[in-house]
Structures
1.
Amino acid sequence: MPWQRTRRQTFATDAGRLWSVVGDPRRWAQWCGAIEEAHVDGDVRAGATGAYAPAGPFSALHRRTAPPLRLVEVTPPATAAPGRLTLEQPLPGGAMRVEWVVEAGSDGMSCALSQRISLTGPASPLVARLVAGPLSDGWPDDLARLASLVVTPRPDGLEVVVAGGSGSLGRALAADLAARGHGVVLLTRRADAGVPHRQVEWDGVQDGAWEQVLSDPARTAVVNLAGRLVDARPTAANVDALRESRVLPTRALVRASGRLPVPVARWVQGSTTAIWSDAGETRVTETTPLPTGPAALPQMTGVARPWEAESEGAAAAHRVVLRTSIVLQPGSPALRRLETLTRLGLGGRVGSGRQWFSWVHVDDWLAVVRAALGLTPDVVLPDGPLIASSPSPVRNVDLMRSLRRRLGRPPAPPTPERAVAVGSVVLRTDPALGLTGRHCTSSVLAAAGFRFEHPDLDEALDDLLH
């Protein structure tokens, strides 16, 4: 089965300006972190040859051994037709093809970019790991670099402060907002020179100079995603650490907002649908009561409830509490683990297989956050809890069947609960992550007229893992 990955993004610039960078392979390394250098022999035209060197330890080997790449198509955007640049790198028994399409928006002031990477031939698995995979997974940071080259900040744009912006979701959100002309600041414990956004260091606990990022509160939004990954053994110490990594940064942000002359414009408070722990057959919406007593698992409800509660004192004109389900995103820990297990022949149902799996495609998650930030005029959301989840949850047995189909794997034996418990010790993870579930959908999004681009799991997996 051919390997293929497709990514898309809207930019707040005209098609010609974006094409001036994307349509010139010689500028590839300026915006793509996975590329060290690229050149074309002569003019940029169909049929021309050239070469590129991937960033990383295999750059020198590639320079010495790879045959020339060829420009298959070079078509600038026109009034009624998109621009298209396609290059092809020969591989043993196949090829890697990269295609960019730039399509003008109907308003003449925006455009859309798509990137498709495809591999054929027996060398595909190796090339996917060394070159094509990094090209695809680096898309969010590449978008931010592109935005810095072609996007003029919107005069009416928000300045969005993202706490926890170094994670996969934070970087995807930062890139999406930057491409659309909004300002982005990442609050981070340690600045990373490879991150193409403005970064301000803080410790997530103390007051300090970082509070200057809130200096213009009337046009500032806060998106609070701060917190350690939940993929850890559910020991008392780990649960305490998970809770504190969320509560303490939220407390610091709320404290800083209270000293502002006016409230910040928007506050999107991160949370999780795991706040309902194991909801069984309950059809969960925003108004479903939270569990109490033994039903409130410490590593789920016990972490998310105080995280949300800490944000209640935020000085914000609007505050949305975003209860996010599992986000399916290329290169994310969740999707990578599911894909790896399925490829290893462990793609059977987990436990009974009847536990519900609520999920959302990353593109839809980004659209939900934009709506929560007030950036989608035709979708007006109320303050309060908001579930970010596809309208089509599936049971675990159906999830694993869809993954096997998408990845071309045969039926696999089930993984009994006892095996999950033993395996979680070896992998240092929480067995409840695989054995519990929730059927979560949003009545708030439905009432607001929000439309999901990827409401169906099979279609979403086709888009992400083709």
Note: The domain at 3-148 is CATH 3.30.530.20 (Alpha-D-Glucose-1,6-Bisphosphate; Chain A, domain 4).
2.
Amino acid sequence: MSKAKITWLGHASIRVEAGGKVVLFDPWIRDNPVCPIKVEQIKKVDAVCVTHGHIDHIGDSIEIVKRTGTAFICSPEIGMYAEKHGLKYDAQSTPLNIGGSWETDGFTITMVNAAHTSDIMGEEYKKDGTVVPGSGSVGYVIEFKEGPSIYYGGDTGVFGDMAIIRDLYSPDVAILPVGGKYTMGFREAGYAASLIHPKYFIPIHYDTFPNQKLDLNKLVEEIKVRAPHVAVVRWKPGEVFEYR
């Protein structure tokens, strides 16, 4: 029996299921060209975590939370933005800041650092391109009582405090972007793997658009040199990685 099922919904959108709990990270569904599901198919979810306000990460999160009534984990600034769009602050959202945690039955989510710029590209951006001042970017560590510890980096470059994430949370799985240009690329991802020491490295934020096609063999080579004990997961949108 698997301890966790991790599904790639394309780009940086991730679904994690463990111990009967379901958590979504950065659910960009409706306009995601490689997402294998429709947003209306998302029914059971125990938490939605958003790392930052770029449209490909805040995505459809507010809509999903409104419809399902699930917990909305975010920065205070995104929580205040969501309140303007119908989610009452602290009642329908759970704002955290770096180092803060939210514990519920079955798992604990902790907000950690990320190295990435961001304002908020939400509903206003979809309508007329308006960008709302935001709060930068974060990552998350989720620790399941009946499952693994998973580090989800959102959008980030490599940074030295990844070693602190390793020391404090010992993630079994690291889910990190590798696309280059807007996030770290293969070289930086290899170094990140050497800092974090996960059992599995899961790449995201690539192969979304025609100009983002990457050769993952180069990522495997980088990680083999810097962190040979780390296994790289190769997958496509819609596929499930089972952590056992």
Note: The chain has seven helices and 14 strands.
3.
Amino acid sequence: MKKVLSIDGGGIRGILPALFLHEMEKSLNKPVSQIFDLIAGTSTGGILALCLSAPDKDGNPKFSALDILNLYEEEGKRIFKKSLWRSTTSVGNLTNSKFPIEGIEEVLEIYLGQTKLSESLTSLIIPSYEIERRMPFFFKSRHAKNNPDYDFKMKEVARATSAAPTYFESLKLAANPPADYFALIDGGVFANNPAMCAYAEAKKVFGNEDDIMLVSVGTGQHTRSIPYEESKDWGLLEWARPMLSVVFDGVSATVDYQLNQLLTDSNLKNYFRFQTMLESGNDDMDDVTKTNIRALKRKGSEMVKQNEDRFNELVKILSDNKI
């Protein structure tokens, strides 16, 4: 059996899958990179995937899921730090992205440094979107291992997949000819839930193997409604920020629906989707207040408890297959 992990995007709400994967590592007494044969991650999910697949100097996993949970708690304010000058000059983010890139780039440098995509301890697929060529762009560790032109630094891959429009500026990633560079933004604009991308990649890499297990972990679903009477006459200004969350949520839910419909009854038992509603935690991607981080950690624990039977079934299957 080939095991595939998919991690949604969602900014600071990456706390939920980080906590979920911490529980999985505890239950199986193995790091994520040794549990799964392929990991897909978008935006914050891509940062998780890269960090959990990065090697230390001895070739062991550099970070545990608990380490990345601590990253969100300790570095969230640096990543989502908005200066007074930026607040004044961006005119409600109409003329500039909400956050400067220095914070997130400093954090990615600390955690991923000069590590290359080819050094990943397991197979990776990380979605981004190329805005000049108007096409999806996939960073793949198998391509990086076979072609040095695609062997980007992990910190660059993480920066590209998390460049959410209106939040962070896009990334101009230097490339080798014939392309001088790639202009990249957050992969969440088309694959916030990259589970379908992961499934397609697994089929490609592992052959037409029916025995594929797909584990998909969400970052919490929005619960705040957009009232009709309030929004019916909104223009570009009012829709700018809500539209992004609508796209991200809609894409994630659609992929889950498609996979449930696509997989036959016999294969459906090998598809595990873990998601929760964010009634108590703020569904904003950038709320790094201590109150919200505590609420998100509670929701992460609830996501495991609410799906305890399914979680235990997953752990048993993985244990029986002697990962």
Note: The chain has a mean pLDDT of 91.
